[in-house]
Amino acid sequence: MKFSKRTELGVPNAVTKAERAAATRGQHLVRLADSNPTRHGLGRPDLPVYQATPRGPLATRELLADFLTRRDNREVDPERLYLLSSTSQGYSWLMKLFCDPGDTVSYPTVYFHAQTI
Questions:
Q1: 21 CB-side CA count, 13 A
Q2: Angle at 95 between CA 88 and CA 78, to 5 degrees
């Protein structure tokens, strides 16, 4: 199976190397591109800091894994599940995983509310 070149980990880039070096020296860096308001004191102080869960909430993945385990009579690990917000997001992930720029892709006709797009 061929995976996209995007999946090759290679060596850390210069920014990652600089961050690691600063952490080793005990320096605290501020990420200027961090748009999470709860990490910058811009929210109600009684609420926890927002943490994104790009694979979907663990509790939901655990419920789904339990359902699939019982239905299919085989163990399903919730850490191997990814919950996506739409089929478009699923297609996007598949393209990033398996395709490189310039590859030709065949895909099904997309429908939205029974309308061909």
A1: 7
A2: 70
